[in-house]
């Protein structure tokens, strides 16, 4: 059987779904959902993608994601890969957690975005688990409904603005909680899902894009993307910024903090679009997990140290000019 079609381009919108292997639970403990939500919060700035909705059921999840850089595949590999590692470690097992590759439905944002968000948020309700709609560890719906305070990485304003009402949260609650057998529900009821959900003009534009590589700019706000800096270029910028030599940036100091090194690794992952293994190969004898730990350290440091956050801002500005 052929693999699902992957359509990626700048500023695309996707409904992403992934199910546990053998329909087994991918969230066994309350902390598993918290870990997954934390990862979503890391993936968003790391790959510069936007999470607009989520629903974490016992054996599968749903996401509504916008990708300004057209890099859904990289973001999802990181999300599912890192979560699998953490899940397996927490329950003492090994092997794949998810059933094959994730599914990604390309969404016609102008026509179906609100409907898809409604479909995602109604999943717990359709499963007879209404209480889950009030718990942000299960669904983003409480943030839309005004039942939970917002979190920094979840984007809610875009969808709420589409409603076009001063009482947008109230109208959104009515929209989600009112049972309707609409077109989107029928779309998802099919056994074999189409990789694209859209009106005729959107479908024709995507067909042309697949065939000729040209996307109608009226269908999607396609942004120009500059070539991402290489790992060596990022290392060079960090060496100059911190006033050090390359060998001190690259090598590990054996448990002695090396903030410039962690910063360089963090930037490599954030802006170079390179894999963890590729980054590891440029920082001495470093493992895949070592890169992940360095990124995690830097994320914690950035939250608590304004001076280091200032360095990041200056470095990012330098690489954009």
Quick tags:
321 residues; alpha+beta; Alpha-Beta Plaits; Chromosomal Replication Initiator Protein Dnaa, Chain: A; 9% strand
Name the CATH superfamily classification of the largest domain: Transposase IS200-like
Any idea of the CATH topology of the largest domain?
Alpha-Beta Plaits
Strand proportion, as a percent range, falls in 5-15%
Total DSSP E strands: 5
Distance between the termini: 46 Å
Strand order of the largest sheet: 2-3-1-4-5
Task: Return the string of H and E elements.
Answer: EHEEHEHHHHHHEHHHHHHH
What's the level 1 CATH class of the largest domain?
A: Alpha Beta
Q: Stretches where pLDDT falls below 50 for ≥5 residues?
A: 217-226
Q: Give the mean pLDDT.
A: 86
Computed structural class: alpha+beta
Number of helices: 15
- Report on the biggest sheet: 5 strands, mixed
Structure description:
The chain is an alpha+beta fold and 321 residues long. The protein is globular and about 65 Å long. It folds into 2 domains: 12-212, Transposase IS200-like (Alpha-Beta Plaits, 2-Layer Sandwich), CATH 3.30.70; 231-320, DnaA protein, C-terminal DNA-binding domain (Chromosomal Replication Initiator Protein Dnaa, Chain: A, Orthogonal Bundle), CATH 1.10.1750.10. The model is unreliable at 217-226 (pLDDT under 50). The chain has a 5-stranded mixed β-sheet with strand order 2-3-1-4-5, with helices on both faces. It has 15 helices and 5 strands.
Helix and strand layout, with pairings?
Blueprint: E1 12-19, H1 30-46, E2 50-56, E3 60-67, H2 72-91, E4 103-107, H3 109-121, H4 123-126, H5 141-145, H6 157-163, H7 168-177, H8 183-188, E5 196-197, H9 200-212, H10 231-242, H11 246-250, H12 259-271, H13 276-280, H14 288-304, H15 306-320
Parallel strand pairs: 4-5
Antiparallel strand pairs: 1-3, 1-4, 2-3
Helix pairs in contact: 1-2, 10-12, 10-15, 12-14, 14-15
């Amino acid at each position: 059987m052929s693999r699902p079609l992957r359509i990626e381009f700048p500023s695309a919108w996707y409904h992403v779904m992934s199910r546990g292997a053998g329909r087994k639970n991918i969230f066994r403990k309350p902390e598993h959902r918290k870990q997954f939500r934390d990862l979503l919060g890391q993936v968003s700035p790391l790959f510069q993608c936007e999470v607009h909705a989520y629903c974490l059921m016992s054996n599968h999840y749903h996401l509504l994601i916008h990708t300004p850089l057209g890099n859904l595949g990289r973001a999802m590999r990181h999300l599912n890969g890192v979560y699998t590692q953490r899940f397996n470690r927490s329950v003492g097992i090994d092997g794949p957690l998810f059933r094959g590759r994730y599914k990604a439905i390309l969404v016609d944002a102008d026509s179906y975005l609100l409907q898809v968000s409604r479909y995602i948020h109604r999943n717990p309700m359709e499963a007879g688990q209404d209480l889950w709609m009030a718990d942000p560890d299960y669904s983003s719906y409480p943030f839309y409904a005004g039942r939970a305070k917002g979190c920094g990485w979840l984007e809610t304003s875009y969808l709420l603005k589409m409603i076009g009402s001063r009482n947008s949260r109230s109208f959104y609650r009515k929209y989600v909680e009112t049972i309707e057998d609409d077109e989107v529900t029928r779309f998802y009821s099919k056994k074999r899902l189409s990789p694209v959900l859209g009106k005729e003009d959107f479908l024709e534009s995507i067909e042309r894009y697949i065939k000729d590589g040209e996307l109608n700019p009226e269908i999607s706000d396609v942004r120009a993307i500059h070539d991402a800096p290489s790992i060596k270029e990022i290392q060079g910028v960090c060496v100059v910024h911190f006033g050090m030599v390359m060998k001190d940036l690259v090598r590990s100091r054996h448990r002695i903090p090396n903030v410039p090194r962690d910063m360089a690794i963090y930037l490599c992952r954030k802006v170079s679009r390179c894999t963890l293994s590729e980054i590891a190969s440029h920082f001495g004898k470093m493992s895949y997990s070592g890169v992940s730990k360095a990124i995690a350290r830097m994320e914690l440091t950035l939250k608590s140290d304004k001076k280091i956050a200032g360095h990041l801002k200056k470095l990012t500005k330098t690489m954009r000019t």
